[in-house]
Design brief:
The chain is α/β, with parallel strands linked by helices and about 300 residues long. It has nine helices and 16 strands. The protein is globular.
Length: about 300
């Protein structure tokens, strides 16, 4: 089990300011989330860890460039599971840039990763990286995959990255509860899904235990894990056909209004749009919940 020190702040900032201007803490930046690709960059100083690589090489370069980061700067890629929108670009990163990939055994086999650039982990192994970044993989139920969520720690504060699950376990609640930042999928609005054109078999798979979380389910999960320490939430992996940002946000907020007073954002497919930060302080050394936003510059 990981042990954590205590720091006190989570911040949010829209992408455009370069990550090199962030002098303290660790940034969490979704390069894009959705059925067409997922990747999340964790950065602290010169250390950069990518959680999932579901993009082409060209798309990964393009999105990282907006943060003044190159694929060559990546210390490692960690993969939640083998489905193409999460791990389909991992082998590309190994072959093109020699990036080490961390994955469990099934994910490695399904993706055909290069043995010489692949490191295996088991559930609840603590992965240690440079600049004090550590990751804890926690199993989550998802059909046809050996999926994990990651709880990232930097200096004692924690950020959870959770996607592709149709339900949750007591173990997941235990490890996520009290995280300063939580990124979790809110995949579909149930009424939209049921009224939509998908065949009944696909609807059953999406709504099943190994499928995806609805907006209401995400709200219920967050009501169990948010505490006074939780200062920011990002909703991810919204279905373009069966959901909408205003539906996801309003439904989740209805469920958590009594336990959460922080900052909530939505990550869409065409990122990056903003970053969150754990462990930052102001110039006097005091924690603050200030949110900084500046206009996004497209490449």
């Amino acid at each position: 089990m990981a042990t954590f020190l205590l720091i006190e702040a989570v911040y949010s900032i829209s992408v455009c300011a370069r990550l090199t201007t962030i002098r303290m803490g660790m940034s969490i930046t979704h390069l894009g989330t959705g059925s067409r690709g997922n990747a999340t960059l964790l950065s602290s100083g010169s250390s950069h860890i990518l959680v999932d690589q579901g993009f082409s090489g060209v798309q990964l370069e393009k999105r990282l460039k907006m943060l003044d980061v190159s694929p060559n700067d990546l210390d490692a890629i960690v993969i939640t599971h083998h489905h193409g929108d999460h791990g389909g670009g991992a082998l590309i990163a190994q072959k093109r840039w020699g990036v080490p990939v961390f994955a469990n055994h099934r994910t490695t086999a399904e993706l055909g990763l290069l043995p010489e650039l692949t490191h295996h982990f088991e559930a609840l192994d603590v992965l240690q990286f440079n600049q004090g970044i550590s990751l804890l993989p926690v199993p989550v139920p998802h059909s046809g995959a050996d999926n994990v969520a990651f709880v990232a720690s930097h200096g004692g504060e924690r950020s959870a990255i959770i996607t592709d699950l149709g339900s949750w376990t007591d173990e997941l609640v235990h490890h996520v509860r009290g995280c300063q930042h939580i990124a979790v999928e809110a995949n579909y609005d149930r009424k939209r899904l049921m009224a939509g054109p998908y065949p009944s078999t696909l609807k059953d798979r999406i709504t099943g235990r190994g499928g995806h979380l609805s907006n209401a389910q995400t709200g219920e999960f967050l009501s169990q894990v948010c505490t006074d320490a939780t200062r920011s939430i990002t909703l991810t992996h919204l279905s373009e056909m069966n959901n909408a940002p205003h539906l996801a946000e309003s439904t989740v907020l209805f469920e958590i209004e009594e336990v959460f007073e922080g900052d909530i954002n939505i990550s869409m497919q065409d990122g990056p749009q903003f970053s969150h930060f754990i462990g930052r302080r102001d110039g006097d050394g005091f924690a603050t919940n200030a949110i900084q936003r500046i206009q996004r510059k497209l490449p």
